Amino acid sequence: MKILKFGGTSVANAENIKRVLEIVNQKSEQDQLVVVVSALSKVTDLLQSAAAKAASNDESYKDIVAEIEKKHLDTLKALIPVSEQSSLLSHVKRIINHLETLLDGCFLLGELSNRTADTILSFGELLSSYIIAEALKQTNKNSGYKDSRELIKTNNHFGKAAVNFEVTNQLIREYFAANDSQVVIMPGFIASSLDGIITTLGRGGSDYSAAILAGALDAKVLEIWTDVNGMYTANPKIVKQAQPIATISYQEAMELSHFGAKVLYPPTIQPVLRKNIPIVIKNTFEPESAGTYISNQVSSKDTIVKGISHIDNISLITLEGPGMIGVSGSSKRLFEVLSNESINVIFITQASSEHSICIGILNSDAENAEQAINGAFEVEITQNKVDPCVVEKNLCIIALVGENMKNHQGLSGRMFSTLGKNNVNIRAIAQGASERNISVVINERDVKKALNTLHENFFEENTKQLNLFVMGVGNVGEKFIEQIHNQRKFLKENLKINVRVIALSNSRKMVFDEDGISLKEWQAALENGETANKDTFIARAKDLNLRNSIFVDITANASVSETYEEFLKQSIAVVTCNKIACSSEYDNYKKLKNLSRQFNAPFLFETNVGAGLPIIDTVKNLIASGDKVHKIQAVLSGSLNFIFNNFDENNSFHDVVKEAGVQGFTEPDPKIDLSGIDVARKILILIRESGYEMDIDAIANESFMPAESLATTNNEDFFASLTKHAPHFKAIYDEALSKDSRLKYVAQFENGKASVGLQFIPKDHPFYNLEGKDNIVLFYTDRYVDQPLLIKGAGAGAAVTASGIFADVIRIGNV
Ligand code: ADP
Ligand code: ASP
Ligand code: MG
Fold first, then answer.
1. CATH at 452
2. What spacing in Å lies between the alpha carbon of 449 and ligand 2's midpoint?
3. Which atom of ligand 1 is nearest to the CA of 281?
4. Same domain as 571, residue 664
5. PANTHER family annotated for this entry (predicted)?
6. Atom of ligand 2 nearest to the CA of 45
7. Can you give the pTM of this predicted structure?
8. Residue-wise pLDDT tens digits, 70-126
9. Domain boundaries, position 778
10. Domain assignment present for 605
11. Which of 5, 146, 479, 682 is catalytic?
């Protein structure tokens, strides 16, 4: 004998029921079967809401009844030949009429008792099992039907009745001893009290009905057919990377289901565990996949953590006060009062000082519990020995479960540090005495992030997912996306980093995709996106609350640089090639650095100086290892270098500057380069990263540009002024020629003073041969005294800048 249970989705409509019948017919060739079915998907919820509406005098319960009726009639019509429909349709209509009469009663009385609620909820399974049994009869002549209410007997704790196993087992055995149908269909979830009143076994209880039958009949196996490929390492609807667990022990499965793995109703395991009957969880929609096998076997080869589960809608109640210390019986009184109120305690921790005790219960029980506890401790509260209890709502419990966890140290540390790195605040911690689970209470808004980051850490070979929010898709941005696209596979395979672009924005449009934007077709996605809005962009990144989020600023925009603070405060890392923030007032630079530390969110800006060259990273490493920078000499403007390397007697200054722009070596506003501002910002950032406090106006900047050119307000006027002042530029060039030197725009720092400006560089100087758009930096430090540390290479251009940004992103991935 095998017991099969099909859940709500499996019997959601005629099409699904046909699949179920196929599975049943196939299985019944080998074994005698009892098939337990749930209500059609969502029907129990509909019944619950119809009852609540009727009891609160809201007539729309009638619409719900109409919806329920249509659903069942449609299903029936699609399963049964027309010639045989009429009597069956009348029967379904009669059941629906009965339901409506009950609801009318609730409406008229304005009342709904738990007992009536159970009767109303029972209609879901009554209807589904009737239709399925009739449909099966069409193809399987040796099939029958039995009403579970006649076999499963309970007390009358309506809503979640307790089974009387003695009576139930006997009734089940007697019935099946006398029944020789090859298949018997039965409704799940419903039962009756010894005096014949309808009861239910609790929401999700059809699993339990099937287990009760399996236990009573010593079944070979209990198969739970549902809509996923078994019990997963985490809820697959929330954690996309979750995998089905092949084998798992009863205890582990019980622990996971108790902590929220809805795929199995927790009490289900009890009746089969005693008899050692295995449970197999299978997918109705992929019957060939193996599913999960639950038994008493534990293999030491199993992964340490078997699964992660969670329960939403939790409230934490803390009872605290000096009167709790050493007074035996405080906890007993607390639990007694909760038990009297039928409040289920899901989570308990007590500090070893016994000064406080903390319990987790469902949000829906919180008010009731608060009142009851404060009432029970009224005397102590008035004597100030105990404080009134504190209730925190909207929390969630997350549990790591595994039989082998007890043999490993450091798991809780790993769990807490993983959550801490993602700024998930832990409100309370509990470890079961069996050491089979560690559970923590966190804020509900962090659930998805917490589950995913824990799953990544414990199950995914340490693959780290980075979620990027990219602003700015000009020359550099475009290259950056292209580079990620080309490199994704390599990063995944070799560095175990999975880079996804969640959001893209330019100044006009923005687009979001929680599953990652296709990097092949990102342009189209962006064009079809919504109107760009910085505030919405930030709000969305916050709300998505994804692990390892990184904001990437590829603009040169001051207002974008003002958003970093917001991101860092959400523990969202910031990677930027925009120099404005790091060269703004010292206090702002310092604040961002501190926020980064405080919120554990990297703030990286390698490309602020020398594009992709590893300059800032080098300074950081020097300082971190105890070196001290005394002097910096550098050519930091790829654009100015390009301009002065190309400017000679054969061309005009105007044309060279234009060409530099066309090739993408200047800022959109070339004045920023030519005025020396850009270079001043860069040396300022190097000085700050070297550990000195300085502001931009402390940097001497004697410009070689005519004042008139710098005063222009648009590019057209600016270029016109370059033509007008051609003789000025020619004179500078001639002077360099006469001195046998080359023109370089040099930034310097020494003895606490900094300057930028055009210099005549003689032949023997390391800057003399600097080609094209190259940058060079010389660091003189405690360790590099005579021969400076020299970094040289291409310091401008979209591709190298993009790769510098990319390198910062990878640095975060490698943390
Ligand atoms: P049924 O109606 O078949 O009884 P349920 O909705 O009760 O199905 O249970 C199946 C659902 O349980 C899945 O669709 C999934 O969303 C949820 N679930 C939660 N945690 C897990 C888990 N660890 N493994 C598998 N499913 C899970
Ligand atoms: N139909 C019931 C519910 O939705 C029982 C079940 O599906 O297991 O709770
Ligand atoms: Mg279920």
1. 3.30.2130.10
2. 29
3. 25
4. no
5. HOMOSERINE DEHYDROGENASE, PTHR43070
6. 4
7. 0.76
8. 999 999 999 999 999 999 999 999 999 999 999 999 999 999 999 999 999 999 999
9. 625-795
10. yes
11. 682
Q: Is 378's pLDDT higher than 90?
A: yes
Q: Which of 29-43, 429-443, 456-470 has the lowest mean pLDDT?
A: 429-443
Q: Is 44 in the pocket of ligand 2 (CB under 6 A)?
A: yes
Is residue 8 lining ligand 2, measured as CB closer than 6 Å? Answer: yes
Report which residue type is found at 419.
L
127 and 8 part of one domain: yes
Active site residue 682: yes
**Judgement on whether residues 31 and 55 belong to the same structural domain of the protein:** yes
User: Does one domain contain both 672 and 766?
Assistant: yes
635: alpha, beta or left, given left = phi > 0 and alpha = psi -120 to 50?
Answer: beta
Pocket of ligand 1, candidates 263, 264, 398, 454: which has the most ligand atoms within 8 Å of its Cβ, to mutate?
263
Give dist(CA 688, CA 558) in Å, integer. Answer: 20
CATH code of residue 49: 3.40.1160.10
Contact (Cβ atoms closer than 8 angstroms) between residue 554 and residue 474: yes
In this prediction, residue 352 has a pLDDT band, given cuts at 50, 70 and 90, of low
Q: Count CB-CB contacts under 10 A for residue 61.
A: 24
Give the residue ranges of DSSP H helices in 182-280.
206-217, 250-258, 269-273
How many Cα atoms sit within 13 Å of 171 on the Cβ side? 20
Q: What is the token pair recorded at 348?
A: 């308990």
Q: Whose CA is nearest to atom 8 of ligand 2?
A: 204
For residue 148, is pLDDT > 70?
A: yes
Phi, psi of 757 (to 5 degrees): 170, 165
Give the residue carrying structure tokens 């808004």: 445
634 Cα–ligand 3 center, Å: 68
24 shares its domain with 156: yes
Give me the residue label for tokens 């105890």. 626
CATH number at residue 758: 3.30.360.10
- Judgement on whether residues 76 and 209 belong to the same structural domain of the protein: yes
